[in-house]
């Protein structure tokens, strides 16, 4: 019997590589779907966006799952998928349902970040609160009356998530900041403020980057914690 054959097999170590072999194809598929979606938005092809956008978060969630990511990360990404799908419908009820789905995703992120006992930077938190307060004051009167309170509550939750994301390092911190920027771009559209050319492209670009960076930050922290 060879020395290799005589070694005992660790089932956990054997299973992980088998699952992780799907990680790269899932990540590549996510990047391709993101590229197709963004190209479709730039070209004004609504059908491409309708097909590509709902593929994004399930692919990223699958990547996180096979990488051994925490269940709360997978849940946050799937609630993001719910928000993506609802926001494809252009009416106030769908907007509120989408915002609610994203809000549950932010609660998942906050719960996940709360497991890390490292304190979040106080100065960063103060800066986020000031930015949020100024933004809400400026946009308040331009928002539809029925959306003001839901938008304010959601914005507070999102800001808390973005601030707390910093405990997991630069990737997660950048992801939280980009998520805040993406939703701010959506809010300015609702308020009918002047917008950048191809506004949906910029919303999706910042959103896709935000979710990817948050996922990479969480996965990196989880891997560093493993013995």
Task: Characterise this structure.
- With 227 residues, this protein is mostly helical.
- The longest helix has 27 residues.
- It starts with a helix and ends with a helix.
Order of helices and strands: HHHHHHHHHH
In what range is the share of β-strand residues? Answer: under 5%
Structural class: mainly alpha
Radius of gyration: 20 Å
Count of DSSP helices? 10
| Coarse morphology | globular
Q: Please state the oligomeric state of the protein chains shown.
A: single chain
Q: Helical residue percent?
A: over 70%
**Through-space gap between termini:** 31 Å
List low-confidence stretches. 1-15
Number of strands: 0
> What composes the largest sheet?
none
Mean pLDDT: 89
Write the layout of secondary structure elements.
Elements: H1 3-6, H2 11-20, H3 23-43, H4 46-66, H5 71-86, H6 92-114, H7 122-139, H8 145-164, H9 170-190, H10 199-225
Helix pairs in contact: 3-4, 3-10, 4-5, 4-10, 5-6, 6-8, 7-8, 8-9, 9-10
Summarize this entry quickly:
This protein has 227 residues and is mainly α.
Throw out a few tags for this protein.
227 residues; mainly alpha; 10 helices; globular; disordered N terminus
